[in-house]
Design brief:
Strand order of the largest sheet: 1-3-2-6-7-8-9
Strand content: 15-25%
Number of domains: 1
CATH superfamily: Alpha/Beta hydrolase fold, catalytic domain
Number of strands: 9
CATH topology: Rossmann fold
Largest sheet: 7 strands, mixed
CATH class: Alpha Beta
Number of helices: 6
Distance between the termini: 63 Å
Length: about 220
């Protein structure tokens, strides 16, 4: 009887990154979109947000598929899954680190992730320990099967934003996330807003004015 064998092979793959605003700005944002989105969609949320003093760029996840919309199949992207989990984490962490170091040298760094993109950034942060100033997790999970280096994260601003009508985030779920942050000794600011599972541009501007624009480097 034949036995199916599993082989692994490192390959090169082309990453696509979309950007907006001022590349010469002193503050750079790396944006990670959510499941079944594109990088262009998440970048669009940052239009007109103090573009002179910020540069926004979004790597697109390397796994593409057709999403069934109302009238047509739309090509979208997805980040890592649990299949071949450790290889996925390593590959995506390398991809994001390459983007971060290519675009953002000698500047203030803000990491922003929406939904699945935020969870991906947690994996990246834990695997690479990149230099950054602020991480905004917008309605994404905080992985519980991970050990966090609290000494490394000290002095970095960690913010969790979520809609009070998010169908994926019940009050019980939020309470559990807060409890886990306390248990893990992660100093995370939790900010609810009135809305659903989406990046609300009005509240995004408020978060920017309150937590990013005034942040001392």
């Amino acid at each position: 009887m034949s036995i199916v064998k599993h082989h692994k092979l490192k390959i090169e793959k082309t990453g696509h990154i979309y950007s907006i605003a001022n590349p010469q700005a002193f503050r750079h944002w790396m944006l990670c979109h959510g499941y079944a989105m594109t990088a262009e969609q998440i970048v669009h949320k940052f239009k007109d947000l103090d573009e002179d003093n910020n540069f926004y760029y979004a790597p697109e996840a390397l796994s593409s598929f057709y999403y069934e919309g109302d009238t047509q199949n739309i090509p979208v992207a997805s980040w890592m899954t649990s299949r071949h989990r450790l290889d996925e984490i390593a590959d995506y962490s390398h991809y994001l680190n390459t983007c971060l170091n290519y675009f953002s040298k000698n500047v203030s760094r803000v990491l922003f992730g929406f939904s699945q993109g935020a969870t991906t950034l947690w994996r990246f942060i834990n695997a690479i320990k990149p230099d950054f100033d602020i991480f905004i997790n917008w309605a994404g999970d905080i992985p519980d099967n991970t050990e966090y280096d609290t000494d490394y994260l000290k002095g970095k601003k960690l913010i969790y934003v979520y809609g009070d009508n998010d169908k994926y985030l019940s009050l019980e779920r939020i309470d559990n996330l807060k409890w886990r942050c306390q248990k893990l000794e992660l100093d995370v600011f939790f900010h609810p807003f009135k809305g659903e599972h989406r990046v609300d541009r009005k509240y995004l501007r408020m978060i920017y004015e309150r937590h990013v624009k005034t942040h001392k480097i």
